Amino acid sequence: MTALPRRQVLAGLGLMALAPRLARAQAAADPVEALIAAAQLGGAVGFAVIDTATGALLAERQADLAMAPASTLKSVTALYALDRLGPAHRFATRVIRAGEMLILAGGGDPVLDTDALDELAAATVAAETAAGGAPQHFAVWGGALPRIDRLDPAQDAHLPYNPSVSGMILNFNRVHLDWRRGDQGYRLSLQARGRRLSPRAYTASIAAVERKLPLFTYESGKLESWTIARASLGKSGSRWLPVRRPELYAGDVFQTLCRARGLVLPTPEVIELLPEGAELAWHESQPLRDIIHDMMEYSTNLTAETIGLAASGAGDIPASAAAMADWLRGQGIETGFSFHDHSGLSPRNRVTARTMARLIAGPGAAGGLKPLMKPIPLRDAKGRKQPSDIAIAAKTGTLNFVSNLAGYAQRTGGRELAFAILAGDEARRAATEGQELPEGVMAWTKRAKRLQQALIEHWCAGA
Fold first, then answer.
1. What pLDDT sits at residue 154?
2. Which stretches of the chain drop beneath a pLDDT of 50?
């Protein structure tokens, strides 16, 4: 190795010492860099801002850096499903009589709940009563969509936003856990909770056990069996748990609802092939456009995956995501993305801020995306909503140490901006993958959201 002259070594050390001051000086000269430095997020922050009227790029920073889109990917899924299925598309859940067998046939309705299933049960009981004679067999069919055990295998098994996929979906394939502490210990119950009805879920069980960690364990046998760490339970509480056997779960609840009306059905079984038969009753979902509106507001992963799979007709999520990517290329956006699902849950998804902003400004504006997005209020330093003449309609995207926002912003009397802000610390995200609320993530996310608002305010001030 050749030794450097002493003068060069000293000069190098001097530059190293000056680097923090140079960075601070640069931030002071650039208000955007000052905002990003103050957020102290680490990792990367990329953005792109486009004038929707002219298509002109107004601002950018690391706009071609491929980052995890998280749930902002649902904006792509929304446009894709609307284009392929149509905004008026409805998903149908049917009851079919094939000889001595009664079949509950799922049609991939992502928003079917217990109350809607009860309406279907009422119609079924009326039809069966009129026909006379009880069925000898009761089956559930979920073949309208491919069977997928878990949206993302890397995520913790107990996370309610990571359930199984099937053409038979009930309550977003979740079961509601409720607990109360009494004189005899804890009372735990699992319910198929709807808005009005909450029958017991007989296909799942749960027990509190003496341990601190893990919080939950899961086994699948005759029942879906959960345990929960007793040390984590307070006096009372509740939460949702994912369902891994959705056909049996829906069949169990349907059986309970029919029995309450006097029709006793046999124990449900799962069938792979749907036989021909007479349709006794059916329930149609709300129109797809309404389903997407709710998906964008509540960011439901299962809805995104089911409408994406329905739109593509593919046999699994990766193939369906690839079909969606081909569709996006057909919209004139050919680079800057890699899709592995429709919800953004997979950390392998990638998109650039430039590509996302182009999607929002182009196909999004043409496809009526803005009314489907969630209004984002501006907030003060204490998190309280504050009045503002800036209107924001956008989709959030959140993973551990990832916080994104993509949508539209407009000051009263100003031009409409299409924007995408991607912020992520990939090293911390990878280190905490699958964990629920790892240390430091809540404070990090709050700082990221404050930065998003500050950037939008800065852009709108010049618009």
1. 81
2. 1-19, 22-23, 25, 27
Using CA atoms, how far residue 326 sits from 80, 319, 355, in Å, is: 10, 11, 14
Task: Say how far apart CA 345 and CA 357 lie, in whole Å.
Answer: 20
| Cis amide prior to 31 (ω within 30 degrees) | no
Give the integer Cα–Cα distance in Å for 184 and 208: 13
Q: Is 220 helix (H, G, I), strand (E, B) or coil?
A: strand
Whether the full predicted model's pTM is greater than 0.85, yes or no, is yes
The residues near 383 (Cβ < 8 Å, ≥ 6 apart) are none
List domains and CATH numbers for the chain: 35-86+289-461 (3.40.710.10), 92-284 (no CATH)
The rounded distance, in Å, linking the Cα atoms of 366 and 35 is 33
CA gap 268, 142 in Å, rounded: 13
What is the Cα–Cα distance from 427 to 195, expressed in whole angstroms? Answer: 41
Contact 423, 44 (CB under 8 A): yes
The pLDDT value recorded for residue 18 is 44
Helices then strands (H, E): number in the chain? 12, 19
| 3-class secondary structure, 231 | helix
Of all residues in the chain, the percent with pLDDT exceeding 70 is 94
Question: Can you tell me the distance from the alpha carbon of 364 to that of 101, in angstroms, rounded to the nearest whole number?
Answer: 46
pLDDT at 21: 52
Residues ≥6 apart with Cβ < 8 Å to 394: 373, 374, 376, 405, 406, 407, 408, 409, 419
Measured in whole angstroms, how far is the alpha carbon of residue 349 from the centre of its chain? 14
Question: Hunting for tokens 């009526």 — which residue is that?
Answer: 368
What's the pLDDT score for residue 152? Answer: 86
pLDDT at site 7: 43
The string of DSSP letters for 349-417 reads -EE-HHHHHHHIIIIIHHTT-GGGSEE---B-TTS-B---SEEEEEEEEEETTEEEEEEEEEETTS--E
List Cβ neighbours of 9 (8 Å cut-off, separation of 6 or more). Answer: none
Closest of 60, 86, 68, 87 to residue 361, by C-alpha: 60
Per-residue model confidence (pLDDT) at position 24: 53
Place of tokens 């997979």: 346
Beta bridge partners of 225: 205, 219
How does DSSP classify residue 3? P
Cα 191 to chain center, whole Å? 22
Q: How do residues 85-140 score in pLDDT, each as one tens digit?
A: 999 999 999 999 999 999 999 999 999 999 999 999 999 999 998 877 789 999 99
Report the residue count for the chain: 463
Tell me the Cα Rg of the chain.
Answer: 26
